[in-house]
């Protein structure tokens, strides 16, 4: 019951976010200019006909276009791209790329961040703490774009030094490669390392800082002392009692940072030439592709809601008190 | 560093039958300075031996190193603490063991109960699981189900009702007393040989304290463990322990059997400590023994006896070297004082060596109370708080009956003590009186003017006459204001002549026993007792007639508390004040108050003359309350039987029908069914007792009973 209401809320929010994105895109983007600037310029009638076909004609009232679009979305059809291809097919192709990046990047970034942050708290003011704090602040001060580019530059340097292509930094895979299942997998992994690392590093920085502070709060807590007094080693007491308790606020923090992560994904895809949702939305804005923009917004909203739902579940699992009360 | 006389432990001490279980020798703990501060020498040479099944009390004021010395023995201090000396458990040296080896000992051979039960349990695990964990850490092969069964058994042993269901409860669903029971269960889980209890009852109400002390006795019976009982409460020690170790500034200053230490005290600090405690069992109100000054800073100790700056017997030779703990009198009695022999020879007591202030006789003592003016009248006062639920859309789910129809009055030059356990409505009552607004029901009349019917001019005038002193001196004083401005503030607000301001502030400072020269300092530069004096000076600035005091001394150590109590006593007599004194400490009330009102769940259950009520309380709750308080007199304490109330305070949002106390009433349980029915149906009102001048109780079966 509780979950059902949550889900309903999410659906409403996703709908609102996508509608807003559609309306914004439909009013600010100008698909007509795409055709008018063609050389040779198509006839006026064919432009109108084409725009009508795509449901992008600005002489049709916005409300009418919106209703048509919503009608499509309700049946699971996000309309056509400006090139006349099905948005759904594009999504099917690109969503996986982006999801792979987000999921792997987040999992690695959060896990490493939490582990390093928690350990730094235990070693407060020792060298480990100082180094990790310094690194985290450095990363936080640098925009994702710069991180991505610097990683690329270092990868080039390493590749040259090693004389082999250890890292790949363009696209998701080598086009036309025929190396069997394992070869393809290896090739994909090679391509994945750098973009994923870019995202993971940013996540690590935010999470290690946050987790360090949360951990410091509970390190001196009486219940940690109790755990040791009953016979747990310091290490066990810290893991089972302190970290476990200190993870709870971090789960909430995850929801907040997820939006920033999505923005980072966009840059990363663009820089590494991945054909994911992030890169697509940037391209679509340049090509005045209203439906693509709306579709990507919807996708992002779904991601955010999924993340928030996940953290709710995690929260309830970590903190049994919410289940009881 | 210093020599302490303890029986030398032979090399085979570990195996002898009466060998000490725990042997601490010359323990030192230093916290190295962070930055440019100085090292804190928290423990400086503690030695004691604990025999099988023995209970050793460690007493001393806060900061004397009681906790640190026991945490050091358990290996629970932070890593940066420097610990030297020796801690032997069954002859095995514990200091220097690594964490893994120590963990094997902790909780199995030596375990600990901490002060604050509210934060001592991990919030995200059930109490049962935490208890089972304690069992399983030391018996990894034990199946989970058996560990859980053992946990349930332990919960039952420490008196948790419905142990099987409560196993699955989380700590926040337990009251403080219940959590402390769980802590004790945890400490006894593996049949340890030593249990260290660090102020296990300090955070609890007296009736709960009595329960917990009972549980500790059970724990000792079950496990046969020796107990180290750390406390600042000299009453708790008196009846509970075999021997006492008194600590001051990180060192033991007196050690001996309870009787030796209490009746044949040989160290001036211990004497002062015992003399400074207000006594529940004393009718005459001799001034308390205040110890001047404050304990020394542990990072900057004077040479010689650390007590020298405060000691009335101090001499030249005291400051040359720190006196060692040496035998005085009985073989087992030791004291660290160069004049111990002299004290013994002359049989000096605290009253002989400490200058006690003269407290003037109250001019009004002769006038009967009926003939004195009524300063405050409270009639059928009610304060109900709505109980809200929900984050955004709050809805009312019930009512907290915080104060539910109470009546009393205070006459001129009279002190009324309002007592009761936490949550019984004492503070709410004060706030209602101080607000000067119309109460939800009933009447509050301050100096003849009824609250809620005052124009602003009257309010202003009444505010002048009624002043308040709060519990926590620090939070009630603005830390950015110098003391002069703090005290001058009410004077300025009420238009005191400017030119007379300085002299008035200085006069007030002298009145409360502070130096006028201190007026330029800030609150942070004063000790707790001095800050409370500043608070009192500010309250007195406008020459009020009624002073409302909310737990004014409960945050202070006894030796400091004594000075403030004496001051309040003196001010009352000199300035002709009336006090409404709220406290949970019944001994303080007996010492200070003329009349007392005992509250339970928003109602007054007994009210009247202090001596009448303390001498022969008539309400079962008052009887239980008085009986629960330990008296710092070992012989009396041993011969007393305590009435131990069952259970916790009921939820004030859902008080029991009829008499609110019936769920815990010891008398109720002895009544027949017919008699009980009345307690169930009919809420008793305060009725004057037959034959008593000023004594009423709200119990259908009130019966005076001598307890002390
Ligand atoms: N972790 C710590 N770091 C620095 N100083 C401490 C620490 N723990 C306790 N102290 C100091 O050691 C002294 C003794 O403290 P404690 O043993 O807790 O006193 P008690 O238990 O007798 O009230 C105090 O001055 C306290 O400030
Ligand atoms: S040694 Fe001197 S200063 Fe210390 S307690 Fe004894 S008489 Fe007082
Ligand atoms: S009225 Fe009954 S239940 Fe209440 S205190 Fe008296 S005997 Fe106990
Ligand atoms: Mg302590």
TrEMBL record, chain B:
GO MF terms held by the record: ATP binding; ATP hydrolysis activity
Protein name in UniProt: Peptide ABC transporter ATP-binding protein
Family per record: Belongs to the ABC transporter superfamily.
PROSITE patterns: ABC_TRANSPORTER_1 (PS00211), ABC_TRANSPORTER_2 (PS50893)
Cited Pfam families: ABC_tran (PF00005), oligo_HPY (PF08352)
A biological-process GO annotation: peptide transport
Keywords associated with the record: ATP-binding, Nucleotide-binding, Transport
Ranges for domain ABC transporter: 22-274, 376-626
Superkingdom to which the source organism belongs: Bacteria
